[in-house]
């Protein structure tokens, strides 16, 4: 085996060592001083680098699988796309290191320091050990962007809890938009199929470019690949069935074209208002952990005309609350007569509640839940009319957003699962 000071022997000409066969690379590099070296692409598989000085080292695309990096100093080093699979980084100092897109499956970070590290798209799994990690804050984007926490510092154990929670989730990515009715119907079927996994929707995020991510929480140790595959399959089945139903019902109602055109005109007005509203910001999300809404979804912003009731209890949210109430009234006008009257009465009661000096949050929550139930009922009886179905979905989504603006817990407005007494 070559001596452990092989790097010193080659001096600055590290490229020579990189060209050597792997079996000539020293296995023991303990306490070696590699400060500032460019080791991009090097293969350190199973090499003992414990207690080495690797500050400011470039390890881009390097292979460190099963390497011993116990106590190594990796401050400000660049490990972009490096492989750390099954490596030992106990008590390693990775402060301000770049771990973007690093593969760290089964990696042992116990007691490591990660303060100021960039963890953009790093790849970890349930075998990755984050116990006792020392971390005040991290960045989720390169160039010190997206600091977490945004202000202050992690409390002891918070970093580990944050990433452990992410390990027990599945991200369903929709690049071309979502049929929300198909999504929630298929999710109900998914929960029934995996009744022992306690599945719930943790969050819905809109990404730059229009992609939507639905984050599903699963039980620890769940077969996430199987659940993700089933979720996509069930969604496609529901989507196909809904499209077939819409086509059949529209064909059967050719005699009602005039009524549909009037409803379409109403829908176009709402669409124009949507287009005129500010876009949803990157990272805008609603926490829907376990929520179930009959045919509802998270809608975009809808601009509306302000009207009589002045909402004085919600500070900077008052304008958004008034806008959403206006939009809900507009959308309710396309409902069947009985449901339209019911929606208007409920909105009247809600406005009076909001105008109280000390609004009753419980009563407001019940009003909102009533509106969600109305949306679910209309979705069932609307006979598949495309315009009405679109208004119902937007109506339900605006109720969800209004709930968020009012600070009402989402659990207070969710409907019980179908079949629950």
Automatic annotation (TrEMBL):
A Pfam family: Pentapeptide
InterPro entries from the UniProt entry: 5peptide_repeat, Pentapeptide-BTB/POZ_domain
Protein name: Pentapeptide repeat-containing protein
Organism: Leptolyngbya cf. ectocarpi LEGE 11479
